[in-house]
Amino acid sequence: MLVAYTRMVLMMLTTFPRFKVALEPQAWKYLHIAGSYWIWGGFFTQYRKKVLLGDTGYIMFCTLLFVLCLRLFDLMRKPRTGAPKKILNS
Predict the structure, then answer these.
(1) Which one of 35, 58, 67, 76 is most buried, counting C-beta atoms within 10 A?
(2) Residue range of the domain that includes 57
(3) In contact, 87 and 25? CB cutoff 8 Å
(4) Helix axes 25-52, 2-13, angle to 10 degrees
């Protein structure tokens, strides 16, 4: 849980211009994409447990599945060009 909160704080801080300039654009993009998937995964896991236990939560679980399908459809539609870009400088 601490990892999720840390990612959310980092995402929040990097929306401000002062912190955003400290990151390269690729690192900023990676942070926000990875953070949003992490948050989505947390919600998905919690609602999956509720649905499997027979509790309510079907609407939210179906909404999360729908969002996943939209994201995967968008990823499959985009053409892949060249080698993958280096995300963070080592």
Answers:
(1) 35
(2) 2-76
(3) no
(4) 140
3-state helix, strand, coil in the chain (%, to 5): 70, 0, 30
The pLDDT, as a whole number, for residue 66 is 93
Q: What is the pLDDT of residue 87?
A: 58
Residue 34 in any domain: the answer is: yes
Q: Does residue 83 form part of some domain?
A: no
List of residues 6+ apart from 68 with CB closer than 8 A: 40, 44
pTM, two decimal places: 0.67
How many CB atoms sit inside 10 A of residue 41's CB?
13
Q: Is 84 contained in some domain?
A: no
Contacts for 67-72: CB closer than 8 Å, 24+ residues apart: 67/40, 68/40, 68/44
Per the structure, how many domains does the chain have? Answer: 1
